[in-house]
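In the design runs reported in the main text, the only information available to the sequence generator was the tokenized backbone. The following block is the verbatim input for one such run; it is reproduced so that readers can re-run the procedure and compare outputs position by position.
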């Protein structure tokens, strides 16, 4: 079993310091997308500097150098640092700040992105309703897509084989949660950030979610 120190060293080695200088079935009307995108994208938006949300600047999108041997197009989530990396063909990666799941709801592993959606409908899972019926049972029939929807502006759907895990990488109407542990299982991104990422991700790419915590071997 990996020790915590080993994972931190390995995760750090994946990516060095910042470098300076086909959609599937959709869940909201395409006629609404542009207006909603504009609503969640700050005025004069510059991904590298715009931060009306007030979180640490390290969570803003940055291009960084990636280690050799990583597959272009894949996504890697460093759950300890709260970073998502999208590997580029030139050996770099785009890095974004994320929020991950609370406690033991985070599920590390290797997944395949088999579906993408703009402004998707959200429906809580049966497990979510069972854990907290007071919060989730009222939404059992689903919530239409829109700026206040829990899945936000875009969603990438994570599968194991042909099985939908109900885990997503998605936008959030709660951007101040970025950098923390807040979700019921998914990886959250700022809506404006995932709008920029979305068109760069191809169905069939892998998403590798690294452990948030590792236990030292005995």
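Verbatim output:
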């Amino acid at each position: 079993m990996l020790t915590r120190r080993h994972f931190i060293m390995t995760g750090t080695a994946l990516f060095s310091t910042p470098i300076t200088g086909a959609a599937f079935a959709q869940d909201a009307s395409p006629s609404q997308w542009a207006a909603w995108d504009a609503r969640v994208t700050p005025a004069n938006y510059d991904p590298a500097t715009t931060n009306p949300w007030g979180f640490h600047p390290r969570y803003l999108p940055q291009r960084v150098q990636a280690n050799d041997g990583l597959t272009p197009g894949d996504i890697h989530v460093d759950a300890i640092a709260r970073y998502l990396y999208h590997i580029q063909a030139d050996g770099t990666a785009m890095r974004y700040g994320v929020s991950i799941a609370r406690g033991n709801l985070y599920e590390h592993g290797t997944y395949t992105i088999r579906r993408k959606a703009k402004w998707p409908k959200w429906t809580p899972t049966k497990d979510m309703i069972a854990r907290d019926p007071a919060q989730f049972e009222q939404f059992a029939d689903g919530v239409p897509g829109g700026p206040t929807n829990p899945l936000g502006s875009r969603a990438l759907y994570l599968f194991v084989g042909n099985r939908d895990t109900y885990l997503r990488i998605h936008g959030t109407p709660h951007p101040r949660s970025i950098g923390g542990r807040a979700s019921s299982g998914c990886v959250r991104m700022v809506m404006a950030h995932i709008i920029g990422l979305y068109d760069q991700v191809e169905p069939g790419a892998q998403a590798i979610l690294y452990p948030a915590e590792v236990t030292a071997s005995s």
